[in-house]
């Protein structure tokens, strides 16, 4: 039972990244999923969430219009498309399986010129 994130890296301001989170060991399609982030010295914060079928999505105000959460239940994967990245988006990004209370290990996103 695990979640494995990938897709982080170093990007310039204004750039884009797509994060992936691959699930295994449980019925992925039965769980709402979320992305969180945590910057050094700050608390972990909710970035985006998506319902089991993908019809309901929610976003933090700070990322609305720039980030898009999606999922592919056939591939047991949830995604976070991040556009127009800003230095303040720099953080470790974690996916989370709601109700199961399962976290991934995280992937680092650094936005810097």
Structural commentary:
This protein is mostly beta strands. It has strands spanning 2-6, 9-11, 17-24, 33-38, 45-50, 57-59, 67-72, 77-82, 91-97, 102-103, 107-111. The strands form two sheets. Strands 2, 4, 5, 6, 9, 10 and 11 form a seven-stranded mixed β-sheet that branches. A four-stranded antiparallel β-sheet has the order 1-3-8-7, with no helix packed on it. It is globular and about 40 Å long. The N and C termini lie far apart (38 Å). 31% of the residues are buried. The mean pLDDT is 97.
Summarize the entry for a quick read.
The chain is mostly beta strands.
What characteristics describe this protein?
single chain, 113 residues, mainly beta, 7-stranded mixed beta sheet, 4-stranded antiparallel beta sheet, 11 strands, globular
Query: Roughly how many Å is the radius of gyration?
Result: 13 Å
Structural class: mainly beta
Strand content: over 45%
Distance between the termini: 38 Å
Q: Helix and strand string, N-terminal first? A: EEEEEEEEEEE
Mean of pLDDT: 97
The biggest sheet amounts to: 7 strands, mixed
Low-confidence regions: none
Number of contiguous helices: 0
The proportion of residues forming helix, as a percent range, comes to under 10%
What overall geometry do the principal axes of the alpha carbons give?
A: globular
Number of strands: 11
List the helices and strands and how they pair.
Blueprint: E1 2-6, E2 9-11, E3 17-24, E4 33-38, E5 45-50, E6 57-59, E7 67-72, E8 77-82, E9 91-97, E10 102-103, E11 107-111
Parallel strand pairs: 2-11
Antiparallel strand pairs: 1-3, 3-8, 4-5, 4-9, 5-6, 7-8, 9-10, 9-11
């Amino acid at each position: 039972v695990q979640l494995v994130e990938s897709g982080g890296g170093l990007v310039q301001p204004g750039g884009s990244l797509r994060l992936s989170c691959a699930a295994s060991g449980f019925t992925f399609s039965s769980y709402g999923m979320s992305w969180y982030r945590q910057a050094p010295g700050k608390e972990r914060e909710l970035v985006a969430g998506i319902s089991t079928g993908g019809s309901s999505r929610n976003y933090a105000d700070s990322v609305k219009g720039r980030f898009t959460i999606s999922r592919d239940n056939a591939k047991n994967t949830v995604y976070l498309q991040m556009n127009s990245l800003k230095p303040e988006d720099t953080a470790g990004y974690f996916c989370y399986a709601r109700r199961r209370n399962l976290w991934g290990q995280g992937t680092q996103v650094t936005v810097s010129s």
